[in-house]
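[job 4417] fold queue: 2 targets
>>> target A
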Amino acid sequence: MLPGPVSSGARSSPQLVDDMDGRRRRRGDAQLADDVLIAPEPIVGMLQVDAERVLSELLGSGSESSSRIEVPTNSQRRGARVVRHYLRESEGEGYWDFFKPRQGLMVSVTDASYHRDTWVRVEGDGLFKLRILLSGRLRSGSGEILAQAPETLLYVSPGASSEGYYAALDEPLRMIVLHCRPELLTRVLGLGPAEIPAPLDSLYVPGRPTSCQRLALRPGAIHAAQRILDSPHRLSPTLRHRYLETLSTEILLEVLGELQNRSLLRDKSPQLSPRDLSRVYEARDYLAQHYAHPPNIPELARLVGVNQTKLKSLFRDVLGVTIYGFIVRCRMERAAELLATGEHGIAQVAYAVGYDYPANFTAAFKRHSGQLPGSWKSSARGHEHRHR
């Protein structure tokens, strides 16, 4: 089942305008892009199989009529590629977007703030979800923090299962979720059984338990998720659909590559226990998400449950880089992306990736890339202009 928020209490807001059936939206959303269709009834809370069918019907590709939702006329849905569900005024403000970039893949985009701690129910069977949290926190029913932005969770459900999380009161929740069916791996991407890495291979084995784990996405993949959330409405529906398809595929391939690398490393390092490998990955994943303000090594060691001497040794042996070297790598990769956009000054980029002094950032970037940040920025912009 797709997330089914349960909330109560109302709050007026000067930034909101009335929408259909008491739902609320920001004034900046008053003029929607031509490719966005407002759902006449909530999609959030449906079983995923129902949501996928309804989404196809709303976007004009379904063959059967759904009893759960009224399908808009052809004129209303002409050119629509994204279905939007606004929260009701009593729930909060913001929306959930849904789109289907390709067979076996549905993507949801959340940009919302709830008026109370809200339980989001998620049930699934025979699928995996990649949940990329860009802003906010997700908590378990017991109050434990499941994820805190920026963080990425991989949820694999071979059979029927039920989970959920709390979205925090008045805390902006910005999140991208890739809802993936097994056929996405086999029929669409063409992977054979031996090429499907753990834990995704459990989708093909009946009786395997549900699993949830943190993943480290490279800064580029996190940036792709951010671009999905902030996708420009100036693009035509056809171009935006391709844009969203490309970005979501980029993220998916990044995850598959990461999981395959882990499987290869396990095969090549039989002397390391699964627990030790898990600790290294957990440490690396945490650093990949918090490279701008990382913990010191004693704090990191406590987080993953191993002494700092062993952690430093394992990290270097498994990943081929020191902890500090990994942090610098993450910072430089993100810095290169920010510089390439041409939208940020060097000092802004330095602060964004965790440097208190731009001069220190400039020296680190030169050591890492062989170029000064200004030269990198100029060459990246020149390359873009030449290929326009």
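>>> target B
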Amino acid sequence: MLKKLVRITAPMALALGLGSCLTPSQELALGEQQHPEVLKEMGGVYKEEPVDGYVAMVGGRLAANSDMPNLSYTFTVLDTPIVNAMALPGGYVYVTRGLLALANSEAELAGVLGHEIGHVTAHHTAERYNRATLASILSAGLGVATGSSALAQVAQQGSQLYLLKFSRSQEYEADSLGVKYIARAGYDPTAEADFLHSLDRESQLAAKLAGDEARDRGSDFMATHPVTADRVVRARALASDTHIDPNSRPRRRDEFLNAIDGIIYGDEPKDGFIRGHTFSHPIRKFTFTVPPGFTLVNTTEAVGARDKAGNVMVFDSAKEETGMSMTRYIQSLLGDRIALKDVESIMINGLPAATGWAPVSTQSGSADFRLVTIRFDPSTIYRFQILTNSGDTQKFGEALRRMTYSFRKLSDKEAAALKPYRVRVVTVKTGDTVQSLAAKMPFETANVERFLVLNGLESGTRLTPGQRVKLIREE
């Protein structure tokens, strides 16, 4: 999901005193101010019971055992498939439903929450948002030229996120505090290291599935909280230093599985679904397919796709009720910023459309920008914004044309057949194997690997009758 980064403007930073250490009241003010922005940019609150209340209960237990037990913490489950957790100054702590789907016990969830609480109690969150101010000031380039903030975010996402990473020393400190807090709260202190290991495996699998071992991970946990092998080892050492026998402490796996059984996995119907290289929206009733080699990413505001060479596509919508022709609309869209060439009127699966292109300069060099606009109904226009490196334009020209011409309306029957994926907890029966259960999941590739990572199991694991495991199923 190509989420926009939540940034602090320079005037806001000065007003809140980000140039120096924040007072507790300033930290709380910053958290209160940015909380609505996090909700807006990260899918809002996931409200399905009993998930939200369960996370708040576990978080409250950790907060009571933290170094700032009197701070009024706010725990929120974000409605996004991105695997992430984060915190704002003032005690605002977030986990995503994507992260909950990956975890395998209450103790692992506690480890994540304890780590984020550690960032709050060590005041790392205020320091990070100071650096976010720099990211805001530095953001420039293609968005200025084209007026497309979404296109600029996709093209330059990696460098901006770099500024939002916690430092290694901050991660180590938060790990240390997290282990301390979960041990105080009565959990198995090795759980945090186990979840870090699962995160590493999930990231490697996602990179493999995307065909890029060094992919830009967007705004996931691995991008903002880099996990390295030495961090996992160190977290295990921290747990060992507590001198607590892991077998003497509960993991509360069943309680956790009961809480997340049925949680949505992947995209929500309101945001549309990615299935392989195809994006379909069951509510707005349209679909299109991107070329092989491009990885789709979904947001509440736009759909993006990138390939390993940095070629970018952003698909979004706009309201237009004047009834103007598509050629007139496309020429008026960019104003004086870019003069489109070869503007022409076309038809795409019975829908009036227009297209044009222009050479542009980006921070990465010369590129070609193509805009395609499609009138979907009297008040809605959909837009493909495509940016290709000048040397790649001819190579991808035909594939990108096929992409735009794949856009079509869905019938009521087709739209009704689109259902979200959900996590379903099942009990292993006699004769069940990793392979047989993994085959029941709706993915085209790597089902066994997905099953193992989802359940925190290693290759070669044999399942035991009565054991409870997670599957991904269509609703």
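[job 4417] complete. Note on B: The radius of gyration is 23 Å.
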